[in-house]
Amino acid sequence: MQSWAPDNIDDFLDWTWSQIEPIFLDLQQRPLDEGNIEAWLNEWSDISNLLDERYWRHYDATTIDINDKAAEEKFTRFLDEIRPQAKAAEQRLKEKLLESGISPDGFQVPLRDLQTQVNLFRDENLRLLSEEKKLAIEYDKIVGAQTVLWEGQQLPLPQLEPIYQEADRERREKAWRLAAGRQLKDRQALNELWGKFLELRGSIAGNADYPNYRAYRWRELLRFDYLPEDCYQFQQAIQEVVVPAAQSIYEKRRQRFGIASLRPWDIFADTYGKPSLKPFISVKELTGKASRIFSQVDPQFGKYFEVMRTEGLLDLENRANKAPGGYCNHYPYSKRPFIFMNAVGIHDDVQTLLHEGGHAFHVFECGHLPYFFLEIPSEFAEVASMSMELLASPFLDADQGGFYNPGEAARARIQYLESMLLFWPYMAVVDAFQHWVYENQAAASDASNCDSYWLRLWERFMPGVDWSGLDEEASTGWQRKLHIFEEPFYYIEYGLAQLGAVQIWRNSLQDQGSAVAAYRQALSLGKSVTLPQLYQAAGAQFTFDVVILQQAVDSILETITDLEEAID
Ligand SMILES: [Zn+2]
Predict the structure, then answer these.
(1) For 167, phi and psi rounded to 5 degrees?
(2) Cα(382) to centroid of ligand 1, in Å?
(3) What is each CA distance from 315 to 294, 310, 337, 564, in whole angstroms?
(4) How is the beta sheet containing 327-331 ordered, strand by strand?
(5) If you write DSSP's letter for every residue of 64-96 in order, what string do you get?
(6) Ligand 1 center to residue 442 CA distance, Å?
(7) How many H-runs (helices) and E-runs (strands) does the chain carry?
(8) What is the 519 CA–ligand 1 centroid distance (Å)?
(9) CA of 355 to the centre of ligand 1 (A)
(10) Measured at the alpha carbon of residue 246, what is the angle toward residues 243 and 249, in degrees to the nearest 5?
(11) How far is the CA of 401 from the centre of ligand 1 (A)?
(12) Burial of 471 (C-beta count, 10 Å sphere; 0-12/13-18/19+)
């Protein structure tokens, strides 16, 4: 504990910048050598963790009650008066550490990342990067304003989603066409916004002396373990191995529906014609059963979850004045996670809690690591959460402590496994599209070229669904993918994480105990090692290879076949 440390985190929530600044000044002025580096890093780590935790606690308070004006004011004051100063002070400490030339044990990966960030930094890009954020807000505004009149009510498009799951095909088609028509009205506005994004990104890359935006972005995302060529290899492997499997799933759906061809509005409907799953009535029931499931995956996970329950680190139920969505946060000073979601009693709630549980246990497993640089690595975070969804799936049955009778559990699991297979080809379209865009930036600034390239990719990766007569809707699909506008090149990380998670789950089919032990070991490494080393520790390979992907697809298809027998 540092001499300046607050008595508790709640006290720190009220500290002003004038109380915090001396801690940074002292760190800044202290001469560094091999003898004191560890204490110096620990102290920096403590203040940085306090600030991060404060950010999340203020943020969480605004989502727990969106009408809490005092919470909102505190958060805004923190963002205006403390965060920018703290970020600037931290930047100076990063430079000081790099200039010292000292490389403490286990610090190679964080030092590599720091060096990259310092190299990438350009004063003249600061304005352009905030300009980019503003364009992203513009995109959110255009898409967020899209509503349609449905049965007398003006509805935002996401609220039509339950209708796509309904049994009534005519209603599904009507809702789908209504939404698509509304989206096409913004086609021109989004084309113009796209041109601005591309121009800006070209300038950002140029200022930082990179030949194109992709090369710049690769460094900004701190990608050292794979190249664009690996992404092409992954796309190719998906085409060879996953596309036929996805096609077979579409064909099975078409047959179960008994229709001539599967149209875009048929993809999300339940093909078994059964009522939707009702896993729990109260949140108490949800937490109780989730706790039993986590304990079965590993007793230690059950214990972590109990800590969260007793310490008030779960806010799960939907209620008035709560922000939408779900997430898991990290309180790095207290070394605790916090899960927020809006449970209403549907299967998605169960899946969300299992997913966020994986993120939460990652926080617990990293808790022993000494410096803040060694904590949650973003590129492995989704491996942690997606693996948990799969590792927990055998325990969804009521006789294993879970929520469902065997037929219901089988339906839930089939739906999840199928969605994984259907995701990879779509991910390949999104990724391949972006590589083409930034390799051909001049051509891609003309949106009609984007339309036709997207359509080519769609035909290559997405056979099995009949889009005839819907050319405009099909070719503008890139406009509906937020990541293409706001998070360039990020999307492949979901596809890679999914392949990691399936490998870990495959191991558990052979030997649950040792698979989970390896998974926990990997989580506990934080980001002290490289991404391929994390995969290796988890018993998986970080790969883009067709052989591993084929094994993953085979296991998914075999499990689906087994589960189908459990459905009456
Ligand atoms: Zn996640």
Answers:
(1) -75, -30
(2) 5
(3) 18, 12, 12, 35
(4) 314-317, 336-343, 327-331
(5) H-TT-HHHHHHHHHHHHHTHHHHHHHHHHHHHH
(6) 35
(7) 26, 5
(8) 16
(9) 6
(10) 155
(11) 24
(12) exposed
Find out whether 396 and 350 touch, Cβ atoms under 8 Å: yes
Which residues have C-beta within 8 Å of that of residue 39, sequence separation ≥ 6? Answer: none
> In the prediction, which pLDDT does 135 show?
93
Query: In angstroms, what CA-CA distances link 349 with 118, 280, 340, 359?
Result: 41, 10, 11, 15
* Residue 106 main-chain phi, psi, to 5 deg: 75, 15
**Average pLDDT for residues 38-66, to the nearest whole number?**
94
What is the 395 CA–ligand 1 centroid distance (Å)?
A: 21
Per-residue pLDDT of 84-115, as tens digits, reads 899 889 989 999 999 999 998 878 888 898 89
Asked whether residue 281 carries a pLDDT value surpassing 80, the answer given is yes
Closest CA to 271 of 287, 294, 255, 288: 255
102 torsion bin: left (phi>0), alpha (psi -120 to 50), beta (else): beta
pLDDT at 104: 86
- What is residue 395's predicted lDDT score, i.e. its pLDDT? 97
Per-residue pLDDT, 66: 87
**Ligand 1: centre distance to CA 349 (Å):** 14
Cα 317 to averaged position of ligand 1 atoms, centre (Å): 19
Looking at per-residue pLDDT, the higher value among 152 and 158 belongs to 152
Task: Tell me the pairing of strands 336-343 and 327-331.
Answer: antiparallel
* 153-167, 392-406, 457-471: least confident range: 153-167
Q: Tell me, in angstroms, the distance from the centre of ligand 1 to residue 386's CA.
A: 7
Q: Quickly tell me which residue has 């990342």 as its tokens.
A: 113
> 128: which 2 tokens?
């352009």
The rounded Å distance from CA 149 to ligand 1 centre is: 33
388 C-alpha to center of ligand 1: Å? 11
pLDDT digits (tens, 9 = 90+) for 489-507: 999 999 999 999 999 999 9
Distance between Cα 327 and ligand 1 center (Å): 7
* Summary mean pLDDT of the chain: 94
| Alpha carbon of 474 to ligand 1 centroid (Å) | 28
The tens digit of pLDDT for each residue in 379-402 reads 899 999 999 999 999 999 999 989
Ligand 1 centroid from CA 112, angstroms: 25
Distance 356 CA to ligand 1 centre (A): 6
